[in-house]
Amino acid sequence: MLSLRTEAESVATALETGLFDVTDAVRWADRQIERSDVPDTAICDAAMAGSKYPQDVAFILRQVPGECDQAQAVRLVLRYALDALEQGRRDPRQVARALFDLAYAGDLPKGKLRGQAWGYWDAIDLARHGCARQTEKQITADMASAIGGFLASQPEDAHR
Questions:
Q1: C-alpha angle 7-13-17 in degrees, rounded to nearest 5
Q2: Whole-angstrom Cα distance, residue 134 to residue 148?
Q3: Distance from CA of residue 70 to its chain's centroid?
Q4: CA dist 23 to 15, 88, 91, Å?
């Protein structure tokens, strides 16, 4: 089971990378309040942060006490990215940018996904301008497959 701090970190990172907007973070905080007899103050603050900037909400979420398992937080962010692609909730270019940001920050472990993450953003831009061999749809499918492959290769206990 993931710690609340780890989940909060994943939501904060999703906000910073554009995978979540403030409304998504507020919804997450509301669910945490419903589950808890005595919710943490930072969770309550996040639930009331609907008019704040994403960076401000991310800061609030990082005030949730406890231990953060950074690897599991990144795994959750990747789950959010895959869900966003599969459900059409985010532009594929935004998901590609989020992967780039995670790679740039050193949050993606070394391996195939990290190597591929550097190129998806540019590849989608090139495809949109007709300058790529692959279509945007093909690149998006490849990106989803790479994320899914990474998640499938990791322990299942990280996602609830």
A1: 145
A2: 20
A3: 12
A4: 10, 17, 17
pLDDT of 159 above 50: no
**pLDDT tens profile 94-109:** 999 999 999 999 999 8
Q: Which helix (H) or strand (E) holds 88?
A: none
pTM > 0.70: yes or no: yes
Contact 46, 57 (CB under 8 A): yes
Q: Coil, strand or helix: which one is 138?
A: helix
pLDDT, tens only, 74-89: 999 999 999 999 999 9
Running DSSP on this structure, what letter comes out for residue 66? S
Of 19, 42, 54, 58, nearest to 143 (Cα)? 19
In whole angstroms, give the CA distance from residue 155 to residue 134. 32
Instruction: Give strand ranges (E) for the chain.
Output: none
